[in-house]
């Protein structure tokens, strides 16, 4: 509580939204998780009991608490109670191997693991290896009993809004873990941005097809309570289950990686619905064909862009109604762009190598640079990498994009995925987008491999639609219709694509694999 | 610009929203004002020119700039440029008399007056009396020429979000002016709250039926740019003109005092519209009859509550869809409540005389107390009154309300308007609400006057519908059907009600008038 002459200051914290919602939506369902559901009063009370339980387990301000959780009421409760204790939430990617988890537990210095039933055994084992505490659903240290055994404590406000809220480890790469630090202020503002851009209200029902461990589910873990909406948890993302929940609960909103949307489109739904669902997606832009299929299924897709380092979506493809009347291909091209800064972000910049903004001509590539309150507070215990990620007051994203004349940006590639062939830059994303429109192709990844003549040459790794087959020559001819000759891959592989748990294609794995095999071939040739 | 290790911090300021909108909505109309309209690019450019003009006129950080403006592009431009200079905006109520303006100029220490053409002459005179600078539309120191004569300067961020943004003088009462201090942080958050609760988007068209000088038009002066919507200015609030603009520009949103809504309902519209308009109103709750009329005119009314001291609306009557199926009178009763804390406010409290929360029983009255980032930073140059307005970390509002079991609050009265008769508290608002439902009554004010027997007795001042007449006895009988006998006024006066420029009935004037006349009568009797 502040002094009487400064009542105008309260520290911004995303945990405050629940207190407000519980005050006037007490009898309204806040969370559905399988057979269980909790009203806002019950949910708030559980969070306060959990807070008491954490304190009695020795959790103190600044301590790290690891969450090994599927999308569940447990994870939502941890999102409230851990930060309300002044402690730091460390969400674990649920697909990590034991050794990877050990590395993150060591790096974060977590003193407690809380797990859902799917990870109870692994959590107990990991805690044993590190001699730290653990609690899990359906276990000998049962989460529900633990929570129920404590009396609710009053919400305590955080001492400072710039206090550490969480550490989010980035997925996919090897080497030292990069622990992205979030503070309360950033997450509060990001949650408000998501409320606005998704159009959440107290009538919204949000389906959890995005992992909560990934950037706190783009802050929807808090945004839903800010609006007073309803969480619908899914512990696994099976298409049939997603459609069942969508119907059973009248879902109005969901977010998902492109791979999940592809899966939903491939599966289809048994019965059509008049209800439209607002869908936010990040990563690769959805192809026109995918957008059409999703539209027929009642899903209205908005394309977002962001990094773990920007609290998830920092750009939103804000749609303008005058675009509705454009031809389909033009609409698809507009929809594939990453868009503009979200409502709480500063305007996004695209910088050239000298650090100057590139012209807004839709052609000149540069690196996306971000500033604002939703840029990470740095990498945990890694000042060198933190400093390297920032320049002239901006966070450098490593993403190469162009700025269109209308102020919308469009990603050309990850900086490290750009292929340099015969002195020309080839955007792997541009080539993939063309290949993905071929009727036989579900998705593709285009990788640069060393080439004696050109320096690098593009290779296409392609996943074909179930029951389809295609000749290399056909894809080459198809690509030639849309791309300059030097951009067209000459080599094709047909296989499944490796992905991160959040659905991103792991080009680094493909690149390593292709390069080592080609190196082997070439040494065999010599 | 922050250092490279703290890119995650930008000071929150409502002036940043325009920069973002201008980046991607450059060609979209931002402001319509009579025959003139400006795109976002033009509007942003004008604001930057104005900023340069202010600086060249000697305006320095911390200086006060008085705005004597009707609802206009000028006022919107001042809302951007003055705070962007680090200076302090002082909006003047456009109905003030010269002596009142002089008092505010002295109290605020304004060094410059900027006026719209309607107040050009007054502004020049006032500036002359105080020997300070002035600029006005259509004058010898022409606003447009002044702005055009300067090159745009780059937006400079404020040094601190807790820096003084504006001084808003409260209306209506006598004595020392009370200058409510706003800071950038509070206005930024309030603007985001208004975006959410009004559901503003880039497709919204906001009609200015609320004075911009009143709490910065509830921060819609900035919220519209935050969403990328369009401002439609009205320099006077004539019903025919309001309906004309509503049709001409496809208005989606407006805010207005109850008196303006009454006026719109009385006037009606010539042609019906299918489009629904989101209407926010504050002050007295709209009667069921008024709500029905407005509904037929396409206006969906949401009831808000707030004070100048809370950046305008701090409470919103968040509607729950399950209430749609309730009987009309029950719906009207729910709609008349003031609601719940807005999305950026801390939960509202209703405190008894000892400072404890009253039970949420819908019956026990207490004083509404507010805390959060949208509570004023105090009264300018008045620490005593500032301290007196706050208790135990809350701002005391002076409004008496009850808390309903569902967490929605409902105002019973202004603390100073409560009538104490025969030891019983009479809520003037409760009595007025009954009288206002009588078919012959447009609006009423119930005032306590000294009474030898009861201490105070309620007197009703009533404005009758055009062409209607009614006997005291009929109103007494009507009120008796709904109210306890001691609450029913015995004395009636039929006349227009004096109002503040923001449409609040000036009970203090009525009270003074009634009391002095009654004192006169009584001394005459004796």
How does this structure look, described?
The structure is a homodimer of 526-residue chains. Helices cover 33% and strands 24% of the residues of chain A. With 526 residues, chain A is α/β, with parallel strands linked by helices. Chain A folds into two domains: 20-403, ANL, N-terminal domain (Rossmann fold, 3-Layer(aba) Sandwich), CATH 3.40.50; 418-525, ANL, C-terminal domain (GMP Synthetase, Chain A, domain 3, 2-Layer Sandwich). In chain A, the strands form six sheets. In chain A, strands 2-1-10-9-11-12-13-14-15 form a nine-stranded mixed beta sheet, with helices on both faces. In chain A, strands 16, 17, 18, 19 and 20 form a five-stranded antiparallel beta sheet that branches. Chain A has a four-stranded parallel beta sheet with strand order 4-3-5-6, with helices on both faces. In chain A, strand 1 and strand 2 form a beta hairpin. Chain A is globular and about 70 Å long. Chain A starts with 15 loop residues before the first helix and ends with a helix. Mean pLDDT of chain A is 91; it is low at 1-5.
């Amino acid at each position: 509580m502040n002094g009487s002459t400064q009542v105008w200051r309260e520290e911004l914290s995303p945990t405050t939204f629940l207190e407000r919602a519980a005050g006037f939506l007490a009898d309204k369902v806040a969370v559905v998780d399988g057979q269980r559901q909790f009203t806002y009063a019950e949910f708030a009370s559980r969070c306060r009991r959990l807070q008491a339980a954490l304190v009695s387990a020795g959790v103190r301000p600044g301590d790290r608490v690891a969450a090994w959780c599927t999308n569940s009421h447990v994870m939502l409760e941890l999102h409230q109670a851990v930060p309300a204790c002044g402690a730091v939430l460390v969400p674990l990617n649920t697909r990590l191997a034991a050794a990877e988890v050990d590395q993150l537990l060591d790096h974060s210095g977590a003193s407690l693991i809380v797990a859902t039933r799917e990870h109870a055994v692994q959590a107990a084992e990991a805690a044993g290896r590190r001699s730290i505490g653990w609690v899990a659903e359906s276990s000998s240290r049962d989460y529900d009993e633990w929570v129920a055994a404590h009396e609710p404590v009053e919400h305590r406000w955080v001492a400072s809004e710039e206090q550490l809220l969480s550490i989010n480890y980035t997925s996919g790469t090897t080497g030292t873990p990069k622990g992205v630090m979030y503070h309360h202020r950033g997450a509060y503002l990001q949650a408000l941005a998501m409320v606005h851009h998704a159009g959440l209200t107290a009538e919204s029902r949000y389906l959890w097809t995005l992992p909560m461990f990934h950037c706190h589910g783009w802050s929807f873990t808090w945004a839903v309570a800010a609006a007073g909406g309803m969480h619908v948890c899914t512990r696994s993302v099976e298409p049939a289950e997603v459609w069942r929940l969508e119907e059973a609960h009248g879902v109005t909103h969901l977010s998902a990686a492109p791979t999940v949307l592809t899966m939903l489109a491939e599966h289809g739904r048994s019965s059509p619905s008049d209800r439209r669902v607002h869908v936010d997606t990040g990563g690769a832009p959805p192809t026109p064909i995918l957008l059409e299929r999703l539209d027929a299924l009642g899903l209205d897709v908005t394309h977002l862009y962001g990094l773990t380092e920007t609290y998830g979506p920092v750009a939103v493809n804000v749609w303008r109604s005058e675009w509705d009347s454009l031809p389909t291909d033009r609409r698809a091209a507009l929809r594939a762009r990453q868009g503009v800064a979200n409502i709480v972000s500063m305007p996004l910049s695209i910088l050239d190598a000298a650090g100057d903004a590139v012209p807004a001509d839709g052609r000149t590539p540069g690196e996306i640079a971000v500033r604002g309150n939703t840029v990470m507070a740095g990498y945990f215990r890694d000042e060198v990498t933190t400093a390297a990620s920032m320049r002239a007051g901006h966070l450098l994203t490593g993403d190469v994009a162009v700025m269109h004349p209308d102020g919308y940006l469009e990603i050309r590639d990850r900086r490290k995925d750009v292929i340099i062939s015969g002195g020309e830059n080839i955007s792997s994303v541009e080539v993939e987008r063309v290949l993905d429109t071929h009727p036989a192709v579900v998705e593709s990844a285009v990788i640069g491999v060393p080439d004696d003549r050109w320096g690098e040459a593009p290779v296409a790794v392609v996943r074909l639609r179930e029951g389809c087959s295609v000749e290399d020559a056909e894809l080459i001819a198809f690509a030639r219709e849309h791309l300059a000759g030097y951009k067209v891959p000459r080599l094709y592989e047909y296989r499944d694509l490796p992905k991160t748990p959040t659905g991103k294609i792991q080009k680094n794995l493909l690149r390593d694999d292709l390069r080592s095999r080609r190196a082997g071939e070439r040494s065999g040739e010599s």
